[in-house]
Design goal:
Layout lengths: L2 E3 L11 E4 L13 E4 L1 H36 L4 H4 L4 H28 L2 H18 L6 H15 L2 H12 L2 H30 L7 H23 L12 H15 L9 H9 L1 H30 L4 H28 L4 H21 L5 H15 L2 H11 L3 H24 L10 H36 L4 E2 L2 E2 L23
Antiparallel strand pairs: 1-2, 2-3, 4-5
Helix pairs in contact: 1-7, 1-8, 3-5, 3-16, 4-5, 4-6, 4-8, 6-7, 6-15, 6-16, 7-12, 7-15, 10-16, 11-12, 11-14, 11-16, 11-17, 12-13, 12-14, 13-14, 13-17
Organism: Gibberella moniliformis (strain M3125 / FGSC 7600)
Family: Belongs to the major facilitator superfamily. Allantoate permease family.
Subcellular location: Membrane
C-alpha cells in the first residue's frame, strides 16, 4: 500500500492523501489505481463512520455493564431471602461471573480470529441477554451460580471484540477517543443503574421486583442486540452506510496504518510471538493490578461510603456520583491523549497517581472528616478510567490479527483475575478500616505506575532503534506512510519495521 501525504501546499485542507487501491473487492483492472483523499474528505468520512458505529457500541457496552452488575441491584430487592442466600453465597455468586469470563476468554480470542468479529460479538450478546432473563427463575444458590458463570462466559467477547473493531475502522491516533466513547457507556450505566433499579423496585406487579429487573435488563439487551446485528457491519468493505468509493477509502486509510487484515485463520507463529513479547505480560499485569482495587470497590464501595456515616439513601445517591466522576476522568484522559502526542502511557501513570492520593486520603484521614474521605473515593475513580486508554494502546501497538487477539485475551484474563481477587482483600474482621484492602490498593497503584512507564520505555527504545536502522521518514504523527503494496499480508508489529509505537 502507498499512503502518501502531499505537504507542498500550506493549507491542510488542500493537501492530498494518495492510497493505493489494493482493496479486496477491487477488480483486476482497478488493482493498481490510486485513490486520492484530502484531509477534509477524510474528516467527513470519519464523522460518517462515527455516527453509525459509536452509538451502537456505546449503548451495547452500557447494557453489558448493567447486566454484569445487575445482581448487585437485586441484593436490596429481596433476592437474598427468596433464593435463601447467605452473605458468603451472595459474594460467590457475584464472583462466579468472572470465573465464566476467565474460562471462556481463550475460546473468545480464537472465535474473534476465525469468524467475523461483529457477528461473534452480537451472537454472544443475544445469548447472554437470554441468560439474563432466565436469571429471574434463579431461586437457589446453585442455579444463580450456574447462570452467573454462563453470563460471564458469553460476555467475555465484547471487550476484546470492540477493541478489534476499533482498530479495524480507525487509525492509531483515533483509537483513544473511540475507546473512550464506547467505554463511556459503562460510566453512564454506573450513573443510571441505581435510578433504574429504584424505579423497577416500585413497580406494582405479581412478579418480584428483582425478577422484573433481570427480565427488563435482559429484554433491553436482546432488542438492542438484534438492532446491532443488522446495523453493525463486519468490515469497512461491507458497510451499508458507505458507498463503494468510501468503502475503499475506509479500508485503505486504516490498512496503511496497521498493515494487518483478518485472514480467518489462527496463526500459531503470531500466538507464540505474543507470548514472548514482554509488553503482553506487562499488559496482563497492568490489568491485574488495576482491577484488584476496582473489583474490591465494585463489591464494597457502597459499604465503605455508608461506613463514613451516611444514610442508606445518601449512600445510594453518593454511589451514583462515583459514576459521574468516572465519566469525567474518562473524558479527561481522552482529551489528554488527543492533545498531547505520545501521552497515553503518561496519562495512565498520572491517573494511578491520582488514585493513589485518593486511597491515602481514605486510609489516613480521621474518620470524622467524612467529606474529605468521600473526595478520596471520587479520586480513586481516576485509575478505572484508564482502561479504555489501555485498550487503545493494544489497538495501536499490537498488529497481526492473531497476535492482537492473543494479547487482548491475556489482558482480559488479567481483568478477571483482578476482579476475583479484589473482593477477597476486604476482610470482614477489619471493618470499617479494611487495612489490608487499602494497603493492597496502595501497592497496586504504585506497581501500575512502574509497569506502564516501563512499557513506555521499551517502546520508545524500539522506536529509536527503528529510526536508526530504517529512517524516520516512514512515519508522520504515528501513522505509517509507506507500505510498498503489501496489503494482502497479516504482519505483526515485529515483522513490519515501518511501524512506530504510540507511547
Amino acid at each position: 500500500m502507498s499512503l502518501k501525504e502531499s505537504r507542498s501546499c500550506p493549507s491542510q485542507d488542500k493537501a492530498s492523501i494518495e492510497l493505493s487501491n489494493k482493496h479486496p473487492s477491487a477488480s483486476v483492472g482497478e488493482a493498481n489505481s490510486t485513490l486520492t483523499m484530502t484531509p477534509a474528505e477524510e474528516r467527513k468520512l470519519v464523522r460518517k463512520i462515527d455516527l453509525h458505529m459509536m452509538p451502537l457500541m456505546f449503548v451495547l457496552y452500557l447494557l453489558q455493564y448493567l447486566d454484569k452488575t445487575s445482581l448487585g441491584y437485586t441484593a436490596i430487592m429481596g433476592i437474598l431471602q427468596d433464593a435463601n442466600l447467605s452473605g458468603n453465597q451472595y459474594s460467590w455468586a457475584s464472583s462466579f461471573f468472572y470465573v465464566g469470563f476467565l474460562i471462556s476468554s481463550p475460546l473468545s480470542s480464537i472465535l474473534l480470529v476465525k469468524f467475523p468479529v461483529a457477528k461473534v460479538v452480537v451472537l454472544t450478546v443475544l445469548i447472554w441477554a437470554g441468560i439474563q432473563m432466565v436469571m429471574a427463575a434463579g431461586k437457589s444458590f446453585a442455579s444463580l451460580a450456574v447462570l452467573r458463570i454462563l453470563l460471564g462466559a458469553f460476555e467475555a467477547a465484547i471487550g476484546p471484540g470492540f477493541t478489534i473493531i476499533t482498530s479495524t475502522w480507525y487509525k492509531p491516533s483515533e483509537h483513544a477517543l473511540r475507546h473512550g466513547l464506547w467505554y463511556g457507556g459503562a460510566s453512564v450505566a454506573y450513573i443510571i443503574g441505581g435510578i433504574m433499579a429504584y424505579g423497577i423496585s416500585h413497580i406494582d406487579s405479581a412478579i418480584k421486583s428483582w425478577q422484573f429487573l433481570f427480565i427488563i435488563f435482559g429484554a433491553a439487551t436482546f432488542v438492542w442486540g438484534l438492532i446491532v446485528w443488522w446495523l453493525l457491519p463486519t468490515s469497512p468493505q461491507s458497510a451499508w452506510f458507505l458507498n463503494e468509493h468510501e468503502k475503499k477509502l475506509a479500508f485503505a486509510r486504516v490498512q496503511g496504518a496497521r498493515h494487518s487484515t483478518q485472514t480467518g485463520k489462527w496463526n500459531y507463529a503470531q500466538m507464540r510471538e505474543a507470548f514472548i513479547d514482554p509488553r503482553s505480560w506487562l499488559f496482563f499485569l497492568l490489568c491485574v493490578f488495576s482491577t484488584i482495587p476496582g473489583g474490591g470497590l465494585t463489591a464494597f464501595g457502597s459499604v465503605i461510603i455508608k461506613d463514613f456515616g451516611y444514610s442508606v439513601l445518601q449512600t445510594q445517591l453518593l454511589s451514583m456520583s462515583v459514576g459521574a466522576f468516572l465519566l469525567f476522568f474518562v473524558i479527561l484522559t481522552v482529551a489528554i491523549s488527543m492533545t498531547l502526542k505520545n501521552a497515553r502511557c503518561l496519562s495512565i501513570a498520572i491517573l494511578n497517581f491520582i488514585s493513589l492520593a485518593g486511597v491515602l486520603m481514605v486510609k489516613l484521614l480521621p474518620v470524622s472528616n467524612k467529606i474529605a474521605r468521600l473526595a478520596g473515593i471520587w479520586l480513586v475513580c481516576a485509575q478505572a478510567s484508564a482502561f479504555p486508554t489501555t485498550l487503545s494502546l493494544v489497538s495501536s501497538n499490537i498488529t497481526g490479527h492473531t497476535k492482537k487477539a492473543t494479547v487482548n485475551g491475556m489482558l482480559f484474563v488479567g481483568f478477571c483475575v483482578g476482579y476475583i481477587i479484589g473482593p477477597l482483600t476486604f476482610i470482614a474482621q477489619e471493618t470499617p478500616g479494611y487495612k489490608t484492602a487499602f494497603n493492597i490498593m496502595v501497592a497496586c497503584y504504585v506497581l501500575n505506575i512502574v509497569i506502564v512507564m516501563s512499557m513506555r520505555q521499551i517502546m520508545a527504545r524500539w522506536n529509536k532503534q527503528r529510526n536508526q536502522q530504517h529512517g524516520a521518514e516512514a512515519v508522520l504523527n504515528g501513522h505509517i506512510l509507506e507500505h510498498a503494496g503489501q496489503d494482502d499480508l497479516d504482519e505483526t508489529d515485529w515483522d513490519n519495521k515501518e511501524i512506530r509505537y504510540s507511547l
